[in-house]
Write a structure and sequence with these properties.
single chain; 345 residues; alpha/beta; Rossmann fold; 2 domains; eight-stranded mixed beta sheet; four-stranded antiparallel beta sheet; 10 helices
């Protein structure tokens, strides 16, 4: 088996927030490795903890956050224990982030070219003339037409998809090793979504980037993710290769996400996930998904399941994997995905 190089390692991360109602447990023991050159997708509903995890890696947690435990190792150092001035150097230069709304990363009254060259001049100490040439190259690399002309335009003169391309260019200006994409296509129409996904995938291959892709939509990452971590109520409930998660899902929450995902093969009404996520100010005693899970066992209400090993690449936290658990039939939508996969082989 080929040995993979770990570029980032998150170990037992636990983060809570002070609120007017008490302490909200946002991240409850998240652990994962990110390998060099891979795309790891973290998927789950809003409020599951995906963005909090990514912001912890970037050192961008809100002021009311409490890091209760855990480590985030990059370049043999724990980012959580790193002085802010050193963390600031890593943030943006070695680890870059793309947000859902590109305007949150762009200054509306500064020309696009200047926003790219500032990164090159101040962080890489590049001369202005060379910085401009490099900025134009980056704009061309991310698919901006007529980059020399558009270099002098303002953000409002670009479409949403083109603004997202500019943000990607700024993120790549420092030759970052890790790119965190936090719902980068949510505000875009389907055609532009596909273009941005193709661009991220192309740049990952060309630059040997490691990508963490945050999304609530499993369908978005179907063709770009190497591995997928399914997140619910601040924990990973399933993690495996894209094939593991799409074609051999084990956790009922993963089944529910797949059943609610439209496809060309969809013939019936999509299944909605009933109920709402738990209030993590008062976290449940057992499996957090149990109240919404029609396959829940009595033990799900009483005790959190451990991560069971399905294969060398696949793990899931569900009591249905216990040797004594009853056998259940997966939802029809999940069986359809498996059947269609068999036809396509």
């Amino acid at each position: 088996m080929e040995k993979k190089n770990i570029i980032l390692s998150v170990n037992d991360l636990r983060i809570s927030f002070k609120t007017q109602y008490g302490i909200l447990q946002a991240i409850r023991g998240v652990s994962f490795d990110l390998y060099k050159g891979e795309t790891l997708a973290i998927v789950g509903e809003s409020g599951s903890g995906k963005s909090v995890t990514s912001r912890a890696i970037m050192g961008l947690l809100a002021g009311n956050s409490i890091v209760e435990d855990g480590q985030i190792h990059y370049a043999q150092r724990d980012l959580l224990q790193m002085p802010e001035e050193i963390f600031h150097e890593i943030r943006g230069s070695k680890i870059a982030m793309i947000f859902q709304d590109p305007m949150s990363s762009l200054n509306p009254i500064v020309k696009i070219g200047k926003q790219i060259t500032e990164t090159l001049i101040f962080k890489l100490k590049m001369p202005k003339k060379i910085a401009k040439e490099r900025a134009v190259q980056l704009m061309a690399e991310v698919g901006i037409p007529e980059p020399e002309k558009r270099y002098h335009q303002y953000p409002f003169q670009f479409s949403g998809g083109m603004r997202q391309r500019i943000v990607i260019a700024i993120a790549l200006a420092n030759n970052a090793e890790i790119l965190i994409c936090d719902e980068p296509t949510t505000a875009l129409d389907v055609t532009i979504q596909a273009q941005i996904l193709d661009l991220i995938n192309k740049l990952k291959v060309e630059r040997n980037l490691s990508v963490i892709f945050i999304t609530h939509d499993l369908g978005v990452v179907a063709n770009v993710a190497d591995r997928i971590a399914v997140m619910y109520a601040g924990k990973f409930v399933e993690i495996g290769t894209a094939d593991d998660v799409f074609y051999d899902p084990q956790h009922p929450y993963t089944w529910a996400l797949l059943a609610s995902m439209p496809s060309l093969a969809t013939s019936d009404t999509l299944d909605a996930i009933g109920g709402t996520p738990p209030n993590m100010t008062f976290p449940p005693k057992g499996d957090a998904f149990a109240p919404r899970n029609k396959y829940a066992l009595q033990i799900d209400l009483e005790q959190e399941p451990p991560m069971f090993k399905v294969s060398e690449t696949h793990y899931a936290a569900t009591w249905l994997l216990h040797p004594n658990a009853p056998k259940v039939t997966r939802p029809l939508a999940v069986l359809e995905v498996q059947k269609n996969r068999g036809k396509s082989k």
